[in-house]
Amino acid sequence: MNKIIERINSLTIKDSKTLIERTLKGVEEYGELAEAVMSHEKVSACAYKGLDSNDITEEAVDVLLVAFAVIHHANPKLSLEELKELFSKKMDKWENKINK
Fold first, then answer.
1. pLDDT tens string 62-96
2. How far apart are CA 42 and CA 27, in angstroms?
3. In degrees, to the nearest 5, what angle opens at C-alpha 83 toward C-alphas 6 and 59?
4. CA 53, CA 43: separation in Å to the nearest integer?
5. How crowded is the C-beta side of 75, counted as CA atoms within 13 Å?
6. Going from the N-terminus, what domains does the chain have, and what CATH number goes with each?
7. Half-sphere exposure (Cβ direction) of 98: Cα atoms closer than 13 Å
């Protein structure tokens, strides 16, 4: 996973998008993920597209890539260790909500 994050950071530096453009790209990708889920779940407006779980996975990865690019763009000095700590903190919060 470390090499993936490093590669995303490297690509983020090379990409000329602004933080706003990256964020809007994330919204676009999230919309595509929602569309894939709705198609997979046969929601009437999207059922005809015939998208499946592989499409959902692909769109979710696109969302993650853009999210990591936004993180790096907004906070380029954030270390991998700090990012791991933040993930751990957020997962602890999520876990606490589930266990209530």
1. 999 999 999 999 999 999 999 999 999 999 999 99
2. 22
3. 65
4. 15
5. 9
6. 2-98 (1.10.287)
7. 6
Tell whether the model's pLDDT for residue 44 goes beyond 90: no
- DSSP state letters, the chain: -HHHHHHHHHHHHH----HHHHHHHHHHHHHHHHHHHHHHTT-TTTGGG---HHHHHHHHHHHHHHHHHHHHHH-TT--HHHHHHHHHHHHHHHHHHHT-
Q: Are 12 and 73 in contact (CB under 8 A)?
A: yes
pTM: 0.91
The Cα 99–Cα 92 span in angstroms is 10
